[in-house]
Amino acid sequence: MELDDLKNTWQAYISQDQEHAQPLSEHLNKNKMNVSNTLSKLSSTTLYWWKFTKNVIILLFACLIFNVVLFFIFPERFQNLEHALPVFGMVALFGLVTLWTYYEQVKIFDIADAVNIKAALKNTKERFKRWYLLTTLIYVIVFPLIYFVVVKVVLQLFHVEFPLLTEVSISGALSVISLLGNHLYYKKTYFKWLHTLSKSLDELEEAK
Fold this sequence. Notes:
This protein is mainly alpha-helical. The protein has one domain. Helices cover 84% and strands 0% of the residues. It has six helices and no strands. α1 (4-19) runs antiparallel to α2 (26-73) and α2 runs antiparallel to α3. The chain is elongated.
């Protein structure tokens, strides 16, 4: 179900709510607008990354299949392809993990069929926290692996050799930078929006 349905459900909910309620103050009306705007941001951002990830994965596997086919057709021209297959495998693993995480994220905000939309939106915040913790733990494992493979490939391309400890250290540093960047992004977007959503819903609930 498209995430836009979530916003539409909320709009229908507040329209129905207003039919049976006394005229609201400007502050409460502003809170309802904040909820709608926040849902729009959550919807558009989540769908953007979901579609972007799907397209990247499709392109990735298309390149992988293309190279494997060429290897079987012209084995003499791709004698070292077997060395690249582990790289493709790790990149494919990273892509599939990323695809799964964004798919699960889309499902978190798929609450358009909820009977109690306010309760469902509050539950969404808790589900998102659990999802974020789980995906962070997964990337703690996946990032070092993918970066280690990438570092090995780059060093081989430039015919440079580093001690294993140095390669592991570089992979670890890149993993930390990626995890930190990912955390800062979610802190400035999703966690900020969910906090705004929760605050607006609480104020609307208190006004009842």
